[in-house]
Amino acid sequence: MPDPDQSPQRSTPFSQVPVEIVVSVGRARPRISELLGLERHAVLTLDKRVEDPVELFVGDRLIARGQLIEQTGDKEGQLAVRLTEICETSEALER
Hints:
By secondary structure, the protein is an alpha+beta fold. It is built from two helices and four strands. The protein has a four-stranded antiparallel sheet with strand order 1-2-3-4. Strand 3 (about 60-70) and strand 4 form a beta hairpin. InterPro entries: FliN-like_C (IPR001543), FliN_T3SS_HrcQb (IPR001172), SpoA-like_sf (IPR036429). One of its GO terms (molecular function) is cytoskeletal motor activity.
C-alpha cells in the first residue's frame, strides 16, 4: 500500500486554501529621526546586495529562497521569484 505521506500533492480539505507568501529582499534599521527625515526619492539602504537571494515566508516561517526575475511576454515587467532552495516542509511548518 503506498504511503500517503510520500505523495507530493495529497488532496486534503485544506489543499485549496490560499496562503500569502511574503518575499523579503532585505532589511533596513534606520533610527526614527532618519525615518522622519525621509522625503520623496530618498534611498533607504538594505542589508542585502542585488545578487543575494530573496527569502520566501509563510507567516514567520522561512519556506524557500530564490532569485528575483522580471517576467517577459504578456507579464512583461512583473516581478517573479525563481526558487533556488526549498526548506524542509516539515521543519518549516512545525516550528
